[in-house]
Automatic annotation (TrEMBL):
Cofactor(s) required for function per UniProt: Mg(2+)
Record's keyword annotation contains Glycoprotein: no
Family of this protein: Belongs to the glutamine synthetase family.
Keyword annotations from UniProtKB, A to Z: Ligase, Magnesium
Domain GS catalytic: 121-455
Higher taxonomy: Bacteria, Pseudomonadati, Pseudomonadota, Alphaproteobacteria, Rhodobacterales
Matches recorded under InterPro entries: Gln_synt_N_sf, Gln_synth/guanido_kin_cat_dom, Gln_synth_cat_dom, Gln_synth_gly_rich_site
Top-level taxon of origin: Bacteria
Positions in coiled-coil regions: none
SMART domains, alphabetized: Gln-synt_C
Keyword Magnesium: yes
UniProt protein name: Glutamine synthetase family protein
Record-linked PROSITE patterns: GLNA_ATP (PS00181), GS_CATALYTIC (PS51987)
Length: 455
């Protein structure tokens, strides 16, 4: 291994330098996100990290399913060649919940010839952003993260229930925007704020959502890769904050029966790199044709990427009428029943909100998927369906009903496969079909209850 420069700590963000300042750095966690968005990698003493400018992991980490099984490699022999991982110092951030002084660093993933590995989720998002850059566009996103705090659950056969609040009562549902509801688990929220500050992350706001123990965190708008990195880090941060107070944080799309699901709403706009102006607005402040092309791209191509936005069998339990989740691809201005909402804003902030993504999706792939649809819309220059002016829940669904159907649509969409990368889509489909096959082999309590003696 060649030695890194002695001043690598000078290359990391100010928040990370402030965290280490005046203390001995003990450990560095070298990580990448796998297909599910799980952190993979290795931890090493800081004294060793400073003398390594790379490390190696097999490409099979992108063939692992959420259950820990391995999908067959659909693009070649299963020889597990090593990939080369190099630190992206701009991502260095604290791990403030550890007993010692630890930094986390996301690594770039290349093959042995120095090319970006096309099946690495972060590389998929970088590729989509590069397509925008080639057109003179800079995509801007603002994600919203919803999740549940739940009571510790050590038995998968038992239902998930809300956590106990400071009042001694379990968190109640149907308390959207209630400050008292947030106060019930204020200590967890305090730790989330403290961890985020130490990690250098900006929270735009925290609020109580409609579910029992359900919270939403809004992030400020910005660069897609940087914000995907933040969501990747935030999921771990939030889980660690919850564990400190005897509860779990879950990003399952639908963890509690009868409660709303958790979404990752994605606000998106595009700035011209030449003028610095939002291309969704005309000079007079009106909506541009590009704005309508973007909506049409989402309507025409979102079905093909639902498998990325709703990546598990549980994900499809979100798409239920009147549970604050979309069931179709209608669009409307300030209409929260539609899958594609145009929020109230001035011309500079004109954007479209994609409400389909679940919080269980890999943030890199969720952002890549929605940006890919917009990109295709801008290239195809088609007009969207007429605006929905009423209750979109009254319409028919445009969405696949399960993961298997969603994967079939992805497999049949040549434009989406081309933009996201054919090799990535092939591997992703193999991993997800493996997971779906495993699920279909499980007999549920519902089946035992209603079929055992009645059929």
């Amino acid at each position: 291994m060649s030695s890194q420069t002695d001043n690598w700590l000078d290359q990391i963000p100010q928040a990370a330098r402030d965290y280490v300042a005046g203390r001995r750095l003990d450990e560095v966690e070298c990580i990448v996100a796998d297909i599910a968005g799980v952190a993979r990698g290795k931890a090493m003493p800081a004294s060793k990290f400073q003398f390594q400018d790379r490390f190696f992991l097999p490409n099979s980490i992108f063939l692992q399913t959420i259950t820990g099984e391995w999908a067959d490699n659909p693009i070649g022999a299963f020889t597990e060649p090593d990939m080369i991982l190099t630190p992206d110092y701009s991502t260095a951030t604290a791990a403030p919940w550890t007993a010692d002084v630890t930094l986390q660093v996301i690594h770039d993933v290349n093959d042995q010839q120095g090319n970006p590995v096309p099946i690495a989720p972060r590389n998929v998002l970088k590729h989509i952003v590069s397509l925008y850059e080639a057109e003179g566009w800079k995509p801007i996103v603002a994600p919203e993260m919803e999740f549940f705090l739940v009571a510790r659950n050590l038995d998968p056969n038992q239902p998930i229930i809300p956590p106990m609040g400071r009042s001694g009562r379990r968190a109640a549902g149907k308390q959207a925007y209630s400050m008292s509801a947030v106060d019930e688990y204020g200590k967890v929220i305090d730790d989330i704020y403290d961890f985020a500050e130490m990690q250098g992350f900006e929270i735009d706001g925290i609020l109580q959502e409609g579910g029992a123990g359900q919270i939403e965190i809004n992030l400020a708008h910005g660069d897609p890769v940087a914000l995907a990195d933040q969501i990747f880090f935030f999921k771990r941060l939030i889980r660690e904050a919850a564990l400190r107070h005897d509860c779990f944080a879950t990003f399952m799309a639908k963890p509690i029966e009868g409660e709303p699901g958790s979404a990752m709403h994605i606000h998106q706009s595009i700035v011209s790199t030449k003028t610095g102006e939002n291309i969704f607005s005309e000079a007079d402040g009106g909506e541009s044709e590009e704005f309508l092309y973007a909506i049409a791209g989402l309507q025409n191509h979102l079905p093909a990427v639902i498998a990325l936005l709703a990546p598990y069998v549980n994900s499809y339990r979100r798409y239920v009428p009147d549970f604050a989740a979309p069931i179709n691809l209608e669009w409307g201005r300030d209409n929260r029943t539609t899958g594609l909402r145009v929020p109230i804003s001035g011309p500079a902030a004109r954007r479209v909100e994609n409400r389909l993504a679940g919080m269980d999706c890999n943030p890199y792939l969720g952002l890549a998927a929605t940006l890919a649809c917009v990109y295709l819309g801008l290239k195809e220059r088609k007009m969207p369906r007429p605006e929905c002016l009423g209750d979109a829940y009254m319409g028919d669904t445009d969405l696949p009903y399960n993961l298997g159907d969603a994967l079939d649509i992805l497999a049949d969409s040549a434009p989406v496969r081309e933009v996201l990368g054919i090799e990535f889509c092939t591997v992703y489909e193999a991993v997800k079909r493996n997971e779906y096959k495993e699920f279909l082999q499980v007999i549920s309590p519902w089946e035992r209850e209603h079929l055992l003696l009645n059929v």
